[in-house]
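quick one, 542 residues, struct below
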Amino acid sequence: MSLDFTPKTVSVVTEGYSVARLRADALAGLTVAIVALPLSMAIAIASGVTPDRGLYTAIIGGFLVSLLGGSRHQIGGPAGAFIVLVASTAAIHGIEGLILATMMAGGFLMLAGALKLGDYVKFIPYPVTVGFTAGIAVIIFASQISELLGLTLSEKEPGPLIEKLPVLAAALPTLNPSAAAIAALTVGLILLLRKLRPTWPGMLIAVTVASAATALLDLDIATIGTRFGGIPRSLPLPQVPHVTPELAVAVLPDAIAFALLGAIESLLSAVVADGMTGRRHRSNVELIAQGIANIGSALFGGICVTGTIARTATNVRAGGTSPVSGMLHALFLLLFMAIAAPLASYIPLAALAGVLAIVSWNMIERPAFAALIRSSRGDAVVLLVTFLLVVFRDLTEGIIVGFALGALLFIDRMGKSVTVAQHDDEPERPLDNTDADTVVYRLGGAFFFGAAATVGAVLDRIADRYHHFVLDCSGLSLMDSTAANVIAGTIRKARRAGVTVYIAGAGVELRRMLETHEVNAPDVNFVSTIEEARRRIAAARA
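---
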């Protein structure tokens, strides 16, 4: 099996897996499971589905991501980044449409991994990732306001933020002080424990305390039990969703969005793990694993699976050494569900909303956001456009437009990086005492379509004004077909004017590109150095 498609689990087994590593992985897996338990239910509820579907996603998807993935430390499960997309798909197409879209996204991810497209995700500009992550965080927080305050809405809560805010404002008189107090208690405990006892599972402790307070004080607020009737104590049997061509076509855009976001989120998470551990993940096998995990999750009634940055970082900090910790995290969640399912009925939805409020705050990379605003006008534009489109328009639209702007910014910067000038040692000086009609020009940097017009204008001005024209390409780091075509046009113009053209320092790849565009002898003379061109010109005149 190619190393590109070998799961890290195989590598770990090949290295030799000791009892000591098993103990470390078991402790890390338990730690992550404690964090994932309330978070998985909270994300599912915010996504417009029942809390048990979040647990199915973490158990099935999380196990498969770790078993088959390309990272030693990746933890898979439901992610906050998907809340907006999942909620929208479920509202429009129902659970059947959501499950079908998740399975289709899994297929797309597997195809992307098989085609080795994982290597290209790294080309998503940093301002785009920071902008869409911050935008998602704002949307997640906005979606939790009604639960945080215990509002009673007169109509179904709209998805778009601009439509949502007037509905929430109209419902403010129905604020439930008990729900708001429980939410504040949850947020306060999480922040306090993070400061005083950072190694403790603050989210689980806070939700447990909030649940106990709700039950003991007999507070009149919504809980998992009153809203959803609790959660089951076991996994359902796998079931293939009912598929029709019409439904498949209808959910295709959602499936593509799931796959795109899943690829970005999971590989970013793997990169974070690499930075914390010094290891390197295998991006393509990671995409294949994410695809299989999404299909597996959907078969058990779960929602979208991706690598989760917070839980992956928790796994690393807790001492996880291999994918075994991620598989054990899934098994611990299954055990928790089997034992403590009846207790989940007492969890107040305001407490889970408090958990998501903390999650949304943590998602905003505040130092990075501020640094990008200050760094350059171009980066700030890409960041803000992505952020505003995600918040006020659409997540997919924000990513696509942000990426397009980032690409244009890159093209502009690269276009300005190419240099075309007379050779430093030959500023309009003849090569010998009898030849005053020779000019030497040097190209440097990346010569591609973004710089073609600028460089072409310079070359055209000088190509037919001398008897001998030497073009030094030794400083070129890149040349694309547009650039090669510009040089070919310059040479044709020079030859029509009777100018002898020399190209110096062209490497194998560069020469092959030029020859593809019919830059060949006798129209041009390829030489190794400018000095060789000097000797040949002198010899021709002798």
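The beta strands are 76-77, 306-307, 419-422, 438-447, 468-479, 500-504, 525-527.
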